[in-house]
Amino acid sequence: MSKIKPSKGAPYARILGVGGYRPTRVVPNEVILEKIDSSDEWIRSRSGIATRHWAGESETVAMMSIEASGKAIADAGISPEQIGAVIVSTVSHFKQTPAVATEIADRIGAGKPAAFDISAGCAGFGYGLTLAKGMVVEGSAEYVLVIGVERLSDLTDLEDRATAFLFGDGAGAVVVGPSDEPHIGPTVWGSEGDKSETIKQTVAWDKWQVGDVSQMPLDSNGEVKFPAITQEGQAVFRWAVFEMAKVAQQALDAAGISPEDLDVFIPHQANMRIIDSMVKTLKLPEHVTVARDIETTGNTSAASIPLAMERLLATGQAKSGDTALVIGFGAGLVYAATVVTLP
Ligand SMILES: CC(C)(COP(=O)(O)OP(=O)(O)OC[C@H]1O[C@@H](n2cnc3c(N)ncnc32)[C@H](O)[C@@H]1OP(=O)(O)O)[C@@H](O)C(=O)NCCC(=O)NCCS
């Protein structure tokens, strides 16, 4: 017989506040076209992207996260000291250790909360949200700050015409806290490691890791290329279109929600054609507001869902209390989908 007292958490959890930070520099397709043979028309029609934000020197992963977190904490109506845990999802913070989460926790004035980073690519927000919900319900933290943040411009090969136009920078954050009713549904999540090679950092990274810097590829200026993200665009596209609609449907079923009950759909912002295809396959009714933030934000990986959520609420396209399906998917390959009530 165990002698350990059970931990006491809240009956349920919900998202209490959301905040976003977009770097000040807006980059139109014309800038991308300086380095690749393409056209504004091709980029818009194949991806839906017109502009994206690129971070300046001072807009670091920590700085963007702190800005987004401040807004999310204010939106939640709590004070930073009440945060019991900080989870940062990112693939573009270039220190394996220490985690950037501890610096962010300190700089927002949260005191000494648990703080750690996770790597789950474009599903990172859903992974963080699921951990946060578990912590609130289990009782190890009353309020959890979940941040999705990327500086993907640092990981973009501007001479690779398959990826140069896709990625953007930014941070989105939510506060998850206690609730008397279920406002975050069951998460349908998983991984398909047999497809781990379809989105990855380039071979240069492997060479760098064994220390042979001389073998790293050079760009046209003779400078060492930073190990950029490459992908098998079509394979990822097909996977997203066929498999992720099924996962989204499973998340609706798990939450006991029909498409008619839904107010908002916030898929990961990877490609407008993927978004359109999912809307069709899921047979979402006309009244469902669909996040199409990709047009002006590009693909910001872990930041894309909270950034899109924040913009829908800020522009009045969605409102507090709306029921939203969120689904993230990407490098791993990994995915996570759940139904939430908007803060
Ligand atoms: C990247 C992506 C937009 C490319 O679109 P696509 O329709 O698959 O393009 P393809 O790679 O099949 O190329 C189609 C044609 O356009 C050409 N092309 C490729 N990149 C181009 C560019 N930047 N400009 C102009 N033409 C281009 C190709 O050479 C090819 O020409 P061809 O038909 O003469 O051979 C798309 O594959 C995609 O969005 N994939 C998923 C991305 C994603 O979600 N990634 C992250 C997941 S988190």
TrEMBL record:
Keywords: Acyltransferase, Cytoplasm, Fatty acid biosynthesis, Fatty acid metabolism, Lipid biosynthesis, Lipid metabolism, Multifunctional enzyme, Transferase. Its main location: cytoplasm. The last Arg residue of the ACP-binding site is essential for the weak association between ACP/AcpP and FabH. Residues 269-273 are annotated as: ACP-binding. Pfam families: ACP_syn_III, ACP_syn_III_C. It comes from the Bacteria. Pathway: Lipid metabolism; fatty acid biosynthesis. NCBIfam families: fabH, PRK09352.1. The active site is at residues 122, 268, 299. Coiled coil: none annotated. It is an enzyme of class 2 (transferase). It comes from Streptomyces finlayi. This is Beta-ketoacyl-[acyl-carrier-protein] synthase III. Its EC number is 2.3.1.180. Catalyzes the condensation reaction of fatty acid synthesis by the addition to an acyl acceptor of two carbons from malonyl-ACP. Catalyzes the first condensation reaction which initiates fatty acid synthesis and may therefore play a role in governing the total rate of fatty acid production. Possesses both acetoacetyl-ACP synthase and acetyl transacylase activities. Its substrate specificity determines the biosynthesis of branched-chain and/or straight-chain of fatty acids. CDD domains: KAS_III. The keyword Plastid does not apply. Residues 252-341 form the Beta-ketoacyl-[acyl-carrier-protein] synthase III C-terminal domain. The keyword Oxidoreductase does not apply. Belongs to the thiolase-like superfamily. FabH family. It catalyses: malonyl-[ACP] + acetyl-CoA + H(+) = 3-oxobutanoyl-[ACP] + CO2 + CoA. Homodimer. GO terms for cellular component: cytoplasm. Residues 116-193 form the Beta-ketoacyl-[acyl-carrier-protein] synthase III N-terminal domain. GO terms for biological process: fatty acid biosynthetic process. It is found in: Cytoplasm.
